[in-house]
Amino acid sequence: MSRNYPIVLGWLLKKWPWILSILIVIAIAAFVFRTLTALSELKYGLTPPELPEYQHLKTEFINQNGWLSKEQQYDHQWPYHASQGTATLPIPYEWLDALEAPKNMPWFIFFGQEKAFLSEYIYRIGFINLNDVDQNLDSSVNYSEKQQLPLGLAKTASIHMPGLDRRATAVGFTCTACHTGQFTYQNTRYIVDGGPAMTDLGLLTKSLGAAIGQTVLSSKLAPFDGRFERFARKVLGSNYNVVSKAKLKSALQETVTKLAKGQDTINVTEGFTRLDALNRIGNKVFADNMDRPENYNPIEAPVNYPHIWTTSWFDWVQYDGSIMQPLVRNSGEALGVAAFVDMKIPKTLLDQPATFSSSIPMKTLYEIEHWLAGEYPLENYQAGQLGNISGLKAPKWPSSLPNINTTLAAKGKKLYENNCQSCHLPPMDSPDFWSNHWYHISYENDGHIKQTDKKYLHLTMVKVDKIGTDPAQSEVLAKRTVNTKELGLNTDLCVEIDPLQKTEEMQSPLQFVNVQDSAANNFALALGAVVQQTNDQWFEQNYITNSAQTELEGSRPNCLRSNAGYKARPLNGIWATAPYLHNGSVPNLYSLLSEPTDRPTFVELGGLEFDPINVGITQSKHVAQMNVNVNALPANQTEDYQGGFFILDTRQAGNFNTGHAFTDNPDTPGKIGKKFSHEEKMALIEYLKTL
User: Fold this and answer.
1) Given this model, what pLDDT does residue 522 score?
2) Distance between CA atoms of 627 and 656, rounded to whole angstroms?
3) Taking Cα atoms as reference points, which of 314, 319, 329 lies closest to residue 365?
4) What pLDDT is stored for residue 277 in this prediction?
5) Which of 217, 238, 263 is the last residue of a domain?
6) Would you state the pLDDT for residue 134?
7) 3-state secondary structure 21-69
8) Whole-number Å distance between alpha carbons of 341 and 362
């Protein structure tokens, strides 16, 4: 054998390049096989969506009272980061803080390091960067290393997270996440408290999922697992070791598995500035919390995030005028963005039924609502003066925008009185608004007529067949059903009855009914019952007195209604709330005042540049060209996202831009007034800037 050694060695020396090449090919093949195996195991999208670029700009708040701290105008800790007990993002805060932004292509995870997900990347999804505001406050402070949560995200301690065998600090939405607007004009970013957010929850889900998935993929590809190693060292800190790292790897994998199972079914893409809030709340409460997939409903009725100044004093809220009580509205919203609530269904005789215990801090919700509402606005009127909103006010047109043409606005005021006021009420600076449109709310309980101590602003409700706008959102509560068998619903709710339900003994259209479990429960009643029992559980668990409970509930009963149509709210601050119509299908006020056939078919959402002439969102040349060639593009098959922006196709059900029509054609659906000339539209727009 030793005699053959020189021969073998000589052969190896001659053939080593080939042998080395074969070994390299085998190693690459093995690595590719490991990668493909890891990818197949993940079963999750690892490629992030294309996003708009983020611009660091001078950032200003439009002072509106309400949200800002009494002690300091720019104290962003309240309520921008006030916890509502939610865990909207499906990973613990320490993971989110350590997570890198996803690579545009998953195969590049082996090369280089990305910035943090919570750095510039998350703001490309439409969130508001408070670091830019802080930079304006004190230029002597170095904020380059500062990494705080975006406006509207809050931390909540001790929340159970999917994929973890322990509790953790969660990150979730507050009401400000969806109800704080922004726009840019001439290199300045303006923040509108209470305005519609510019975020895209679908893109957030995909981006976060890609970032987590790429981290899991990296963990499976040692020694090329730099991304996971960096993540693990940040999360574990001084507790970093082989055992803790392996446990973290397993928890990451479990989280991605659960995310893959819970991906949404999208029939109508929401896009920037829109959310199918009612269906998402229903899916979270009745499909996820109850672990009943059959209760899931596809996303199909998106609405523009509503602006919320003045709403605390409305008799009914939501676009469809479906909810009366502020606490029910706010705790229902918290449940929809993943506050914990115990809704376990007993599976054996030994299992305990649902308790409806929750992570929602009801007192915090009340404080936020009080901050929004301010003091009772009719007190000044009753003292002989005009009423006044002391909470969050509608934004006033900034002096840094082009000046308002007062002569043109005076002409527009007359147009408003003749064409808009009958539905949207007189302007708030008129005595008529305060003297003729506020009423006590009356309802019947146990055969007795009761009424609220205070008066509330009575809003006009317009039936869908009259207003002619897209019906999808108005039908969600009326037509959807959910299976609540064995959940334990048993509570009284106030509902608006229809003629078929009315008896001769009933004196009021608002009646209390008992809601119990059913295999096909009306969605509106089931949701109202869940929220009521969740609130009641908190009251009981925290020993809240009856008088304090009444105050927390806003001194109003939990009244619900469905299929009432759409409400016409006052137009104060309407200039800062684009896009328009309830589903965000119209980009600016000029298009809204035009005949429906003259409105653009395609609307681009996600851009922040404000159009002060037409008043709304500036549309790009790309979407303008799409509207020129509209007949060349098939309906409902246009790519949802182009160049990082969302393209809303108004030919798709759920996205219709019909109705609310000013036209001379009597056959136009939703005709509410005569056709406006260009001059009349410009005059009315100029007046609307003043409200």
Assistant:
1) 96
2) 15
3) 329
4) 96
5) 263
6) 60
7) HHHHHHHHHHHHHHHHHHHHHHCCCCCCCCCCCCCCCEEEECCCCCCCC
8) 13
The answer to whether residue 636 is domain-embedded is: yes
Gap between the Cα atoms of 624 and 627, Å rounded: 5
Residue 576 vs residue 66, higher pLDDT:
576
Nearest-CA neighbor of 323 among 554, 88, 67?
A: 554
What confidence tens digit (pLDDT) does each residue in 291-306 have?
999 999 999 999 999 9
Nearest to 475 by CA among 519, 522, 517: 522
Chain segment 194-249, per-residue pLDDT in tens: 999 999 999 999 999 999 999 999 998 888 899 999 999 999 999 999 999 999 99
The DSSP code for 588 is B
60 token code pair: 């200003």
Within-domain flag for 230? yes
Cite the beta strand spans of 412-476 per DSSP E.
438-445, 448-457, 460-462
Listed residue (524, 506, 525, 527) closest to 445, CA to CA? 506
pTM value?
Answer: 0.90
Cα torsion angle, 369, 375, 376, 378, sign: negative
Task: Return the beta strands (E) in 244-307 as ranges.
Answer: 274-275, 303-304
CA dist list (Å): 128 to 183, 268, 398: 10, 25, 19
**Separation CA 126–CA 391 (nearest Å):** 26
Residue 124 lies in a domain: yes
Q: Kindly report the number of other CB atoms within 10 A of residue 598's CB atom.
A: 11
Spatial CB neighbours of 42, under 8 Å, sequence gap ≥ 6: 213, 216, 217, 256, 260
C-beta separation of 347 from 602 below 8 A? no
- Chosen domain end from 263, 287, 305: 263
How high is the mean pLDDT of the chain?
A: 89
SS3 of residue 14 by DSSP: helix
pLDDT above 70 for 81 = yes
Place of tokens 């007795």: 448
Q: Does the pLDDT at position 666 exceed 80? A: yes
What percent of the chain clears pLDDT 90, i.e. is strictly above it? 75
CB 274 within 8 A of CB 203: no
Distance of CA 532 to the CA centre of its chain: 22
- Give one DSSP letter per residue of 312-374, joined into a string: GGBSSBTTTT-B--HHHHHHHHHHHTTB-B--PPP-STTSPPP---BS--HHHHHHHHHHHH-
Q: What count of residues does the chain have?
A: 691
The amino acid occupying position 622 is: H
**Measured between alpha carbons, how far is 461 from 324 in angstroms, rounded to an integer?**
14
Contact 308, 685 (CB under 8 A): no
pLDDT of residue 145: 42
CA distances from 669 to 578, 597, 660, 673 (A): 23, 11, 8, 12
Integer Cα distance of 456 and 335 in angstroms = 26
Q: Which residues contact 440 (CB under 8 A, 6 or more apart)?
A: 451, 452, 453, 454, 455, 456
pLDDT of residue 534: 98
Q: Are 657 and 637 in contact (CB under 8 A)?
A: no
Split into its structural domains, the chain has a count of 2
Has residue 435 been placed in a domain? no
Angle at 134 between CA 130 and CA 135, to 5 degrees: 115
Angle at 253 between CA 251 and CA 256, to 5 degrees: 110
- Show the domain range for 607: 569-688
Per-residue pLDDT tens over the stretch 113-154:
999 999 999 999 999 998 887 655 444 444 444 457 999 999
